[in-house]
Amino acid sequence: MEKVNIVFHDNGTVTYQHKKILNFVPELSKDGDLRVLVPNIPLLTLSTQSKSLPRFLTMGLSMFLSGMDMKPFVPVTAQELVFGYDDPLVSIAHRFFPKTRRPMSQMGLLLGRNGTLEEVSTIYTGHTDMREFGLINRLNGMDKLPYWSDAPCNSIRASEGSFFPPRDQTGEDIINVYDKDLCRVLPLKYRGPTEKTGIKADLYTPADTVFDPPSEETPDNECFCPDDPDSCPPKGLQNISPCQYSAPVYLSFPHFYKADPKLLDAVSGLKPVPKLHETYFKIQPKLGVPVEGKVRVQLNLKVEHQPDISAVANFTDIVFPIMWLEEGVDELTPSIRRWVYLATTFADIAVPLITYGLILVGIACLVLASYKAYSNVVLTHEAIELGKRTIRRGSSFIVNGQHRLLMTKDSYVLLQTDDHDDEEKRNALQAFMGVEPAFSY
């Protein structure tokens, strides 16, 4: 995955597009040509939606489907199931349905998601407020999701998964992440501190009530059932039909993890394991950067018994698991991990050490300077005697009243003044110095 067509704006936002490239990994896969038997999603979708039709139309539809030899299960490869295979019902719908409800030309669960550039995202850079760092500002130019009519279901105030507002700045225990496959914003709850390869992080997992039907504890979930709150799916399911061309597709965690036990009992072979099936994020609290994370969801098809359609008459009411997906990051690249480590864990240790080290060095310098100054103190009497010896040996000017004495190393001169005592002073100087004056007057 990479971000392309990046444009920065003056209001503290940046616009880009996600380019997802999905590559087949043979060593982690079964035989690519192996065919698996999966539910005929277009047929089951049509049969479920036909329950609202008059009986005579339903009978006509049943004859039409029988004439096309439609079966409730179809053999396809995993590649075809994910990226598309030809289906007659999908081809008809693509040709005749109105543009707002027109599906792709093929049937594929992730058709159009590989290498395409459809969605334009605008997020906050955090330049003006780090509490909005990484939050979505616009999706395709819109400030809310078009799939749901009421708030908070249509809110886009969430991260797209690459950056989050740092918890050290916000102090919030709930963060939100948006993914197109989820058809909604997914709230994640802070569960406690953790770490990843020596980097401190916070652990987040989905709230326990995220896929619960509306109740006094979960009133915000009511807007996901716009027609009738009583028609909401059981615990653990999320209706995403508005994102799937009105097909009765429901989202859950893999293997119906944390879902109503009745959903699990209706299907054989499912065994939910938190370590394998739980969505989680490990986010560095200072930078808001995920150091590890996995979004794990399961796509399910809700099938309703329709005895008037002979092709699916034997199907009972069931929520049929189709596939589950895992998207995320296990490890940061070495270069990114190095910078994250230096900016967080290393800095938390190095900055106090350097600060206190400099303080200790400063104290040591002051003590040393004070000791040297005290050791070089000369008593006043000794300083006077030292000054006298310096005058005798050095070369300097001494000014004493109106008499200016010029002394050099070998000669001394008393300049003439108007004072009548000059003769006495010259004689005294001669006696003191023991030499003849350089000049006499």
Q: Give the biggest beta sheet.
A: 8 strands, antiparallel
Query: Helical element count?
Result: 10
Overall number of strands: 17
Overall SS class: alpha+beta
Strand percentage lies at: 15-25%
Broad shape = elongated
Share of residues in helices: 25-40%
Low-confidence stretches: 395-415, 437-441
The rounded Rg comes to 43 Å
Order of helices and strands: EEEHHEHHEEHEEEEEHHEEEHHEEEH
GO molecular function: scavenger receptor activity
Protein name: Scavenger receptor class B member 1
Family: Belongs to the CD36 family.
InterPro entries: CD36_fam
Fold and architecture overview:
It is a single chain. By secondary structure, the chain is an alpha+beta fold. The chain has a domain at 169-332. It contains ten helices and 17 strands. It has helices at 41-49, 55-67, 78-83, 88-96, 167-170, 261-265, 274-277, 334-375, 380-393, 422-433; strands spanning 2-8, 13-19, 35-39, 73-77, 120-124, 136-139, 174-179, 184-196, 199-206, 238-239, 249-252, 280-283, 290-303, 318-329, 397-400, 403-407, 412-414. The strands form four sheets. Strands 7, 8, 9, 10, 11, 12, 13 and 14 form an eight-stranded antiparallel sheet that branches. The longest helix is centred in the last third of the chain and has 42 residues, at 334-375. The chain is elongated. It starts with a strand and ends in an 8-residue tail after the last helix. Its main location: membrane. This is Scavenger receptor class B member 1. One of its GO terms (cellular component) is plasma membrane.
